[in-house]
Amino acid sequence: MSVQSPETQPIIIKKKKARGEHHGGAWKVAYADFVTAMMALFIVLWLMGASEPVKKAVAGYFRDPSGKAADNGSGQGGVGENIAVRKDDMGKLKETLESAMKQSPALEKLKNQVNMTVTGEGLRIELLESEVGTFFETGSTSPSASGRDMLRMISAELGKLPNRLLMEGHTDARPFTSLNGYSNWELSSDRANSARKVMQESGLRTDQVAEVRGYADQRLRKPDDPNNASNRRVSIVVKYLNAPPETTPPTKQTSAKR
Questions:
Q1: Do residues 156 and 197 share a domain?
Q2: What pLDDT, in 10s, does the model give residues 220-237?
């Protein structure tokens, strides 16, 4: 009887099948996809029931994940929600307001009565009166129907900005007197304040207006024609973001014009 040497003996390898090996790892991938889909569904459902500030905050993150749009002016696509308008972007804001005005045929007809200029103080929006009255009836402190429509349109755009506003009222040089001493000083201040009320009811934040000023006829738009109707106006000044403090003395007037 011959005995095989170790070198010639066959090598026998036994394989044992692991429990559950026939399923592989594919179920893990499918399960992970399912959990991800459910998470996305719950997030969408949560957003649908969230408040408007939360929705806007989430939308703002996806528009600008780095959070640098506000540092660069109007950011992506022009003036938007809570995007600061800085000095270099006031021209873009002016174009935005002009474009919004064109969307309404009634307001488009009044474009010659609206003057917008970029100044050292900010974007100045002036609503100029005509001889027959455009935005305010002659001698009245209440805005007309067209005046309210214009103020609402402007406030809808400016209410999106963090920039502070100044409201100014101006009259022409014609004396406005009454038995109770009401004069151009009171008229100019009351018109500016009436415009503020309408705008805050139509989109401005309650803390967005920094000042309400009444100048009577002390800052005529046309000094060479002091009785010109365009001297009667309400001005809205969109201040530059982080503008330096005012160095001019207080403008609140308490004395009546004689």
A1: yes
A2: 999 999 999 999 999 999
Alpha-carbon dihedral sign for residues 123, 159, 194, 145: positive
The pTM for the full model equals 0.61
The tens digit of pLDDT for each residue in 170-219 reads: 999 998 777 688 899 999 999 999 999 999 999 999 999 999 999 999 99
Residues 48 and 110 occupy one common structural domain: no
Determine, yes or no, domain membership for 77.
Answer: no
CA distance 58 to 29: 29
d(CA 235, CA 170) in angstroms, rounded, equals: 8
Q: Which domain holds residue 30?
A: 26-62
Identify how many contiguous H helices and E strands the chain contains and give both numbers: 6, 5
Beta strands, E only, 202-249? 209-214, 233-239
Do the beta carbons of residue 83 and residue 69 sit within 8 Å?
Answer: yes
